[in-house]
From TrEMBL:
<feature type="transmembrane region" description="Helical">
    <location>
        <begin position="399"/>
        <end position="416"/>
    </location>
</feature>
<protein>
    <submittedName>
        <fullName>Spinster family MFS transporter</fullName>
    </submittedName>
</protein>
<feature type="transmembrane region" description="Helical">
    <location>
        <begin position="58"/>
        <end position="79"/>
    </location>
</feature>
<feature type="domain" description="Major facilitator superfamily (MFS) profile">
    <location>
        <begin position="21"/>
        <end position="433"/>
    </location>
</feature>
<dbReference type="InterPro" id="IPR020846">
    <property type="entry name" value="MFS_dom"/>
</dbReference>
<feature type="transmembrane region" description="Helical">
    <location>
        <begin position="19"/>
        <end position="38"/>
    </location>
</feature>
<feature type="transmembrane region" description="Helical">
    <location>
        <begin position="91"/>
        <end position="112"/>
    </location>
</feature>
<keyword id="KW-0812">Transmembrane</keyword>
<feature type="transmembrane region" description="Helical">
    <location>
        <begin position="268"/>
        <end position="287"/>
    </location>
</feature>
<dbReference type="InterPro" id="IPR036259">
    <property type="entry name" value="MFS_trans_sf"/>
</dbReference>
<feature type="transmembrane region" description="Helical">
    <location>
        <begin position="299"/>
        <end position="321"/>
    </location>
</feature>
<dbReference type="Pfam" id="PF07690">
    <property type="entry name" value="MFS_1"/>
</dbReference>
<dbReference type="InterPro" id="IPR011701">
    <property type="entry name" value="MFS"/>
</dbReference>
<feature type="transmembrane region" description="Helical">
    <location>
        <begin position="227"/>
        <end position="248"/>
    </location>
</feature>
<feature type="transmembrane region" description="Helical">
    <location>
        <begin position="174"/>
        <end position="194"/>
    </location>
</feature>
<feature type="transmembrane region" description="Helical">
    <location>
        <begin position="358"/>
        <end position="379"/>
    </location>
</feature>
<keyword id="KW-0813">Transport</keyword>
């Protein structure tokens, strides 16, 4: 590994400071995913209470959030590349936490729609600053490991959104599930303002002269980075495949196997917690090894794991046995966490320091268009179509999910294509491999 950019020793954070910031950023991601996933857990009672079709509830709960998430992501990332990221992050957490709480206070369709829009606006300012802050606390050869620890927020957040929210919804009603997940975010926003220091931008990377490039220059450079484009598409299609399936799975379990409200989340919660954390820690251990500083090896592993996991993702919805489906989910669900940390890290290493927040924003835009707009709306519409104009059923939802499941092979192809281009792109972005 070549030497990183010259820096003053006094400017370097201690090991304890690095890990404290990493854990706090992981908690931000945890709250982010939990606040998003709670909607999936209570999807069925919301649909029934508001008398919606599957396509209608998909728009209310997923598309409404995503439209503003992706719209606001680019300007907020532009701000993050130029101004204090800690302050932006703290403000964004406060916004989405307040709006999540307001989801629980909604008394009708329009109230809930506006609250979900507010959640999307707040969340747009969350992940890009988190990523770039972590990148400036860890050098390039440790970022795959650090971003995988950061990505532990996804399984922990999904578990909270499934298990805790499912328990509260079953005991007290779906509105209370939003209260227990929205309020803690406000405390986390204060903690960040008080205890996290804004790091010098790009201190571990080759110097980049001048101000941050404008949007057009960033896009030109990004489009020249073919490995970056394939990695973004791979992670985006992975979100379409894995998280797209997860969006309707709690409702599918409850319809198919006759479980109560929160029962679907109860089936999935231990898989998210144990399997997701296990997969994330395995990824962190694997990519912390010296032999995995080569981006080509990381991409090869992502391609193989994603391709193999696509098979059980199909079988989970093909079978009519809950026991068999549960086994398939134990194989498939951990794989949807495996790619997150490495994909974030590769995105950082394929981008110069002053373009990173925008690279992350574009990557998240692709992922969230697939995950929050295309996947839930397409599954909802397909379920309505397969229902033949009648009430959406377990059978109609099963058919829709079976159509989505094979897209995992598409994601694997993008990782495979990125592998051949990765070394050249990383050298161009950060000066070395």
């Amino acid at each position: 590994m070549a030497s990183t950019a010259a820096t003053h020793e006094a400017d370097m954070p201690s090991m304890g400071q690095r890990w404290y910031v990493l854990i706090v950023m992981m908690l931000v991601y945890t709250i982010n995913i939990a606040d998003r996933y709670v909607m999936s857990t209570v999807l069925e009672p919301i649909r029934v209470e508001l008398k919606l079709s599957d396509g209608g509830v998909a728009f209310l709960t997923g598309v409404s959030l995503a439209l503003f998430y992706v719209t606001m992501g680019l300007p907020l990332s532009w701000i993050a590349d130029r101004h204090n990221r800690r302050n932006l992050l703290s403000f964004s957490i406060a916004v989405w936490s307040v709006m999540t709480t307001l989801c629980g206070l909604a008394t009708g369709y329009w109230h809930l729609l506006l609250a979900r829009i507010g959640v999307g606006i707040g969340e747009a300012g969350g992940t890009p600053p988190c990523n770039t802050i972590v990148a400036d606390y860890f050098p390039p050869d440790r970022r795959a490991m650090a971003m995988t620890i950061f990505a532990l927020g996804a399984p922990i957040g999904a578990w909270l959104g499934a298990d805790l929210a499912g328990y509260v919804a079953n005991a007290y009603g779906w509105r209370h599930a939003f209260f227990v997940l929205g309020i803690p975010g406000l405390l986390l926003a204060v903690l960040i303002m008080v205890t996290v220091k804004e790091p010098p931008r790009g201190r571990y990377d080759a110097p980049m002269e001048g101000n941050a490039p404008d949007f057009a220059a960033t896009m030109r450079f990004m489009l020249s980075q073919k490995a970056a484009i394939h990695t973004m598409m791979g992670s985006g299609v992975s979100a379409l495949w894995g998280w797209g399936l997860m969006w309707f799975t709690p409702a599918y379990i409850e319809r198919t196997y006759g479980l109560p409200v929160g029962g679907g989340g109860g089936v999935l919660a231990p898989i998210h917690l144990i399997g997701g954390i296990g997969a994330s820690l395995l990824t962190a251990w694997l990519f912390a090894r010296p032999s995995y500083t080569d981006p080509r090896k990381i991409l090869r592993v992502l391609a193989v794991v994603t391709g193999l996991a696509t098979v059980p993702s199909f079988l989970a919805y093909y079978t009519h046995s809950l026991d068999t489906a549960r086994v398939m989910w134990w194989i498939f669900i951990p794989a949807i966490y495996f790619y997150i940390g490495p994909a974030f890290a590769l995105g950082q290493n394929f981008a110069p320091p002053k373009m990173r927040a925008m690279f992350i924003a574009i990557s998240l835009l692709v992922a969230n268009v697939f995950n929050l707009i295309v996947a839930p709306q397409a599954v909802g519409w397909m379920s309505d179509y397969f229902a033949g104009g009648g009430e959406p059923s377990a059978a109609s939802l099963r058919m829709a999910l079976l159509v989505l499941a094979p897209t995992g092979f598409w994601a694997a192809w993008h990782y495979w294509r990125a592998e051949a281009l990765a070394v050249e792109d990383q050298k161009r972005a950060v000066g070395y491999v």
